[in-house]
Structure formats: structure tokens, C-alpha cells
Amino acid sequence: MKLKVAILSLSVFTYVGFTAQNIQNNPGSNHGNKFEQLGTILPTPNIYRTASGAPGHAYWQNRADYDITAYLDEDKRNLKGSETITYYNNSPDDLDYMWLQLDENQQSTVKKADFPYSSTLPKASTDQQLRPTNLPVPDNGYGVNLEKVTDASGNPLKYTVNKTMMRIDLPKILKKGEKLVFKVDWNYNIPNRIKMGGRGGYENFAEDENDLYTMTQWYPRMCVYSDFHGWQNHQFTGRGEFALAFGNFKVSMNVPADHIVGGTGECKNYDQVLTSEQLARYNRSKTATEPVEIVTLDEAKKAEKNHSKQRKTWNFEANDVRDFAWTSSRKFVWDGMGVLIPENNNKVMAMSFYPKEAYGLYRKYSTKAVAHTIKTYSEFTIPYPYPVAQSVEAANGMEYPMICFNYGRTEKDGTYSEGIKNGMLGVVIHEVGHNFFPMIINSDERQWTWMDEGLNTFVEYLTEEKWDNKFPSKRGPAWTIVDYMKLPKDQLEPIMTNSENIVQFGPNAYSKPATGLNILRETIMGRELFDKAFKTYAKRWAFKHPEPADLFRTMEDASGEDLDWFWRGWFYGTDPVDIAIDKVTIATPDLNTPPRETKEIKYKVDKPALNEFEDISKLRNREDKSITFYVDKDKEAQDFYYRYDRGQEKVDNNKEYTSKFEGTEPLTQKEKDKFKNLTAYQIDFVNKGGLVMPIILEFTFEDGTKLTDKSSAQIWRMNEQKVSKTYYFDKKLKSIQLDPMRETADIDTSNNFWSNDGGTSQVSKFELFKQKEGGKTRGASNGKINPMQAAGKK
Q1: Domain ranges of the chain
Q2: Among 218, 101, 228, which residue's Cα sits nearest to residue 161?
Q3: Which of 261, 358, 357, 364 is nearest to 316 (CA)?
Q4: Fold for domain 61-115+137-205+215-245?
Q5: What span, in angstroms and rounded, lies between the C-alpha atoms of 33 and 11?
Q6: What pTM was estimated for this model as a whole?
Q7: What pLDDT, in 10s, does the model give residues 1-17?
């Protein structure tokens, strides 16, 4: 750079100490590929998915509508169902078979997908764990029992069950634009999910001999057929969740008469299943500003004591959803209130269902947390479009459209700790938030857990912050991921890892992507750019099936930021952030630099011959008689490139040229007084971790004042291992703190601090002078003066 007194009048001036000369002096230090474009790593854009990250003009997706009847047999703990599916082939392809998911088969010892884990002999075991291994494994009686599969006329359809998947072979091709109506009847024994695990089943309360049912993954469901995957028929193992098509649902659930039912969508016959008092409370709750008990605690306690043998049928409808789940129990207290979503003027019923064991917490917080969540997510993504949002206390955490299952029970006396309260609030926000990711922005959870869990955890963090600025969020802030990033490399894996293969599931699929998005928002892009881009992604892919490239491309397209380096490092790599302050060099100005005279150098131009080496192509071209060469007789044209390179208006071999270097003159006493307190600090940084990040510095001066500066991650683009920055201050530095707010997930903060404790001597001086004003300067190489030459540097 050209160093002038006018520039140095600033209180701080920085110089990035990396030039072409540095590259030459540091052989082997560069280049990696951290700043290269993702290129072919991402799928090629096409008419379905564009290079901008938006759906293409030919984007399509298939649809499945369901009409289902269900019968809950509480005595036998069995579910019997019958469904009519209308499947719409909107793809450009002819289909000769279809795939459905039979998720309940995962509970079966003989029908499950059977993705085993290795096992070792424990040092100690309980008597319950020590049971003889019976081979082959006996059938435990769980899993889907298919009664019949027919077309709309009742004719049998050929089908094959492969573990948790069922293929139906069609009697004729289902062509583009056609629909198929078919029926499936089935039943299964409902598992005890507390003992057996899993997403759905029953929980038994031994004290009052009642069950609480969470009916999830309970019906044969259509797999997604897509432009990027074909049939998504990967087996369900209990971890990688779901890929589902959108559709409309009509569902009737026949349950014991004293049960209360909550489900996806809206109940269409409350007037038939509720008492007049309960119906009146429900109607009042629609306009209430505080949750109203629709079924009271006293009513729930009374119902627990009587097991009705009568039956009631609850009818629900839900449009444009990808799934349907429901819950049923006589133990439920039920409260609700209306919530207005301002962005689309949508009036939503926020509701909660919970047993008396959770009353002390859920009555106070659950429905309010539901309302807060859908309102906050609407601000950061898209306006909540559905008429209902529900939270059910069921001692677990799992999400479905418009309904989710959470935990949060009090002690028997109704008391609870702050930890239980915050945990309950966090899980309610998280599971309700899943209405957006992936229930609306409908990513493929079977393949990419992070696309719903990671994105949802990120917005959960934003929502927790708006609930309580001091909320103890465990995922989202950069510093919370450090312990994971510190692990040995063989214990880390890229975020871009298939759901079934992730070892560190929570950190990898939830925490790291959420943290990455928060770093993008707060540190790399800034809130304004990030929020616009993130909302654009949500808007583009609402009610559609996005893939990772669609997110990556949209975030760049809508912000104007090249983030390939970030996706490459944070999502595709395992390197941690560990940037260290390696050395600080201090220098003061030499104010008595002797003046230098103006120099003129005389030289002649020797124009070289073009293409001096006769390569093999030229020789063969001359020998090829079929080639005719164009001969340019215009001498000016022949000289064009040489003139352009030299910066001369015209080149003449016989003419003598002059290169003039301006001299310098000493500073005046006034100027010396002005800059006598100037101190330069060259800070050398080393990238120990490998993952590039912005360099954020906090300077503390001897007078107690502070100053901060941030350089973008692109400072590493020329050298990914080492970089230097020089600052000129007119007061003395006391200390330098790298990443003072711990916002880059740096795993080692012990090398982020430098202190001028008095033991550091000023090791050098730098010359300070004035450039002579006057005639035009010209360098001998390209018509421009070299600034390092002007500064007296070699």
C-alpha cells in the first residue's frame, strides 16, 4: 500500500500482512481447498431444482390422500384399522409398483429391519439381563398384521413385505397424471413403549390402572417418490425418521367413551363427544387470552376411576399434511386458547393434553409455550398455516403435524425443579417447532437427520431466547459445541452423514448444524442477510421436498454471500476451529528518515519474438496442408498485446524510455509531534484447527479503553495456515483477546490472548516519511509505481 501521512492521521490503521512475497517465502503452506467451490459435490441443477436453490419450473411431487377408520381395543391393547388411499402420480414417470412403510414392524423380533449393533460382555449384569439366547429368535407377536390389500373394487392386489417396507405390484401401469385408489386392512398389538421403546404405544399408570396411548406410525403410509431419489424405501430402524408425501386426511377413531382424543387436524364432531360444559369451555377458549381448561383436573381424576365399556367415535380432518398422529386416554386434562398469527391473520387453537402427574407444569406453561413457538417460528420462517397446534405430555419427545408428545412431570406433591421446568419448555418448543421442519419444509429425515433436527434446533434456540433471554439453551451458542469439536478425529464425522451411520447422534445431527447456522447469523453473514435468506428457503420449500443443496444454494442466492467455504468446512468436514495468536511484533516510527532524491532510470525495450519455442502442435499445423493461416499485415495489431502489457501507448525498439521514482522529504516538526506516539503491532495468527473462521479481536489499551475489529474468514484465502495483521495505534496496547465473545467455537482459548506485560521490548522501527508531490510516476514494468518501492522497501 502507498503509505502517506494523511492515512496515518487515523487513530487505527490495519495492514494485512500477506502478499505474493509471503507465498514465495512459505513454500508448502498453501493451498488447501477450503475456499474452493463445492462444484460437483452438489448435484447438477436441472428443471426440477435450480442453481439458485429454488424449485425448478418442472418441479413435481406426488400426493396421497387417506380415509382411515381405527378401533382402539383397550382390553386387548390392539389397534384395528382400515384405510382407503388415493395416490396421485404427478411425476413424469410410469409406475408399475408402489412402496408403503410398515413402521410398526420395527417392534417385531422377526419383521424388523435388523440393523444390529456390536455387543460386548459386560463386567456386571443384572439378573434381568442374563437370559439364555434363543436362536432363532421367537416371534414376540408385535408388528403389522395385514388382513387384506385390494383395489377400489375389492380385487386383491399382489404385495410383498420386506421388513418395514411393503411393495404393491400394480395390475397396470400408473401413468403420469393418473391416480390409483386402493384399500388396506390391518391390525397390530400396541407395544408398551416405556418398556420396549419406540415412537408410539401405550404407557401404563399402575396406580390407577389406566393407559395413555400415543398412536404414531400406526397406519401403512406411502413412501415418497421424488425427482432426486425415486422411491425412498430405506428401512425404518427406529432412528432415521420419515420421508412422507403430502395429502388430505379423514380419520375416525373409535375409543372408550370416557377417553379424550387429540389428533392431527381439527375434530369435526366435538358436539357429539364432549359434554355440553366441555363444549362451552372449548368455544370460550377460542377467544381467551389465557389457557382455559376444557377438560378439568377434577373431571380427569373422576374419569380415572371408571373404565367405561361404552364407545365413542371422534372424527378428524387435516389438509395438506404429511402424516397423522393421535392420542387417547381418560387421564387427560385438556386446556387451550386462541392464537393469532399476524403474518397471515391465521387464528390457531393452541392446546395441551396432560395427565394429573404433569398438571403443575403443563397447566402453567405448555399451551403458552405452544403459542409462543408458532408465533416466533412464523417470524423467522413462514406464517404458521394450520388451524391447530398441540402439546401432549407423554414422558417422551416426538413430533407430528399439529401434534407432538413431550415430557415434564412434577413430583407427587406438584413441585418441580428449575431444571425440569426448563427441560419441559425446551422440549415443547422443539417438538412444536417441528411443525415447520420437517412437517411443512418437508426434508427427507430418513436420509438427512440434520435437515430437520439441526434447522429446528437452531430456530428453537432463537425461540428460547425470545421466551427468556437467560434461558439455559444447550444447543445453538457457539461455545456449547466446543466439547464435541475437541474429540479426537476418529470420533468425529461430517454433518453430511446418513442418519443410520451417525455415532455421535445428538451433537452431529442437532447441535453442530444448529451452531453453524447461529455462527452464520451472528458472526459471518449478520442478522439482516441471514434472516432474509433463511426465510427465502422456508418460503421456497414450504410443502415441498428440499435437499441439502437447495438450502446451501438458497442461502447464497438470497444473501449474495459465497458460503461454499463454510458448507465445505462445517458440514462436509470434521476440522475444528483453533486459531491462535502466534506472535506479536511491536514497532515505533523512525521520524528522522533521511530524504531520498528522485531517481530516473533509462532503458530500451527489446521486444521478444512471440512463441519462441516451436512446440509439436505448431510443427504439425505447418505440415498439415489442409490448414490455411491468417496473416495479419497490420503492425499495430501485431503489437497490441505487447503494448498493453507494457502500459505504453506505442512500442518502439529504437527509442529510449525513462522510469521515474519520486523521492521523499522529511516530516515537519508538527508532523513529527503528531505521530511520535504511533505504535505498530504486527499480529501473527496460526490456524491450528484447520477450520477457517473470521478473526475477531478485542484490543485493551493502557488507559483502559477498548476497541474491537473483525476480519472476515476470507483473510485466510491466500494462506489457510498462517496470516498476519498490522495495526497502527496512537496509544499503547495492554492486551489482545482473540474471539472475546467465544462466537467461533474455538476449541482452545488458551492461545487466544496476548498481554504487553512490560517484558516485551519494542523490537524494531519503521520508517515514516512524506512522499514528494509532483510529476507523474511510472514503474518500469507496467506503468504503475510499486508501493513497496515507494516506501523504500526492497
Answers
A1: 1-56+441-574, 61-115+137-205+215-245, 251-435, 577-605+654-793, 607-650
A2: 101
A3: 261
A4: Immunoglobulin-like (2.60.40)
A5: 37
A6: 0.88
A7: 333 333 333 344 444 44
